[in-house]
C-alpha cells in the first residue's frame, strides 16, 4: 500500500494544499486575460 501511516496522509494533504495554493497565487488575474473565445467572434456576440 502506498500510504500506510497517518503522518503520510497528513504530508500528502499538505503537499496537495500547498500546490493548489501555489497555483492559485501564480495564476494570472481574470481581468488581465480574455476568456477563451473572446476574440473577434466573441466581441461580435457581445455587440449584438
Description:
The protein has 48 residues and is mainly α. Helix content is 60%, strand content 0%. The protein has two helices and no strands. The chain has helices at 6-26, 40-47. The longest helix has 21 residues, at 6-26. It is elongated, with a radius of gyration of 20 Å. The termini are far apart. The mean pLDDT is 78.
List the helices and strands and how they pair.
Layout: H1 6-26, H2 40-47
- Major β-sheet, in short? none
Radius of gyration: 20 Å
* Helix-strand string: HH
Gross morphology: elongated
Helical proportion? 55-70%
Low-confidence stretches: none
DSSP helix count? 2
- Total strand count, please? 0
Ends apart, CA distance between termini:
58 Å
Structural class: mainly alpha
- Sheet-strand content, in percent, reads under 5%
- Give the averaged pLDDT, no decimals: 78
Descriptive key words:
48 residues; mainly alpha; 2 helices
Give a quick rundown of the structure.
60% of the residues lie in helices and 0% in strands. It is mainly alpha-helical and 48 residues long.
